[in-house]
Structure formats: structure tokens, C-alpha cells
Amino acid sequence: MESERATAPLDVIAASIRRERDRVGLSLTELARQAGIAKSTLSQLESGTGNPSVETLWALGVALGVPFSRLVDPPRPAVRVVRSGEWPAVRSEQAHFTGALLASCPPGARRDIYVITLEPGSPRKAEAHIPGTVEHLVVSTGRVRTGPVGEQVDLGPGDYIRFPGDVPHSYQALAADTIAVLVMEHV
Length: 187
Known about the structure:
This protein is α+β, with helices and mostly antiparallel strands.
């Protein structure tokens, strides 16, 4: 059973989408069009009543020109401890894949850190992120196939990979209970 803290932070997401949409001066209709989502879906997200998937939030981030983390990260206290299993998780619609932002990059820095959990089944297909994005992945447990489309690599515990995140790529668990740490760099 999942704790309330381990679900998507809907109030933070709602405020972040509104803030970023206002920053770039896009109407609700135009942002929905650019992100390839329904206007009603975007309206629900901005009101805090939607249930966004990883794919929807990535599409909105790309359309707004911001990293995923800017849409899901609440204001930071000076010290933050995140216990295993209590991270704010966002699930994929495509596969047994959950992304949890552990730390976003502060102003002037260029990295976000996530814990991802994967289960065997359909791959998580990721569209290109904002230009200049680079992904770093270290597998903690299990096995995963990941990398740019056509260049995927199989990895096991302790293995590391670096690849461009600004091209289509995928993640697929090859073993149950796969967990990895993902660091995303943004230029």
C-alpha cells in the first residue's frame, strides 16, 4: 500500500504549471496544443484535480522549456531527508515505471536527481527532453535496458550509463524490483 506522501504532489504541480505558463505568456489552449494534451486535462492539472502521468508532465516541461523537476518540486527546506518508499512518485501510463524527484537543481546549477522503479513489461518510451539534456543512470537493484532508441544497453546492479536525453530514449526492466538513480543535467 502506498502512503499519501508517495503520490504526485498535485498542489505543487498545479501551482508550477500556472506559474510557468504565465512566465512564457501562453494561453491554456496554446500550451495544451504545444504539449499535445487535451485542454480539459491541462485545466484539471492547473486546478489540482488532475492525475498527471510522467508522459504528460514531460510534454508540458518540453512545451514550457523547463525541466520536469520545475513542475513537481516543492519549495526546498534547508535539510531534506527522503526515506525509501516515501518519495513523491509520478507513474507512467505506458509501463510499470515510477519516477520520483529527489532533488532538483537550484538556480545556477544544472542537475536533477531521481529514484526510478521499474517492473518487467512494456518499455517506458521517453520523448526528447529540452535541448542539451544529458541523462546519467546508476542501477541499484535488478536489471534495466536503457538508452537512446536503437542504442539501448542492458545494465545490472552498480552499472552506470550516460546518454543524451534530448533524443527519444527508453527504459525497460529486465528483472523484478529494479531500482536506479537517475541524474539529469540541463544546459
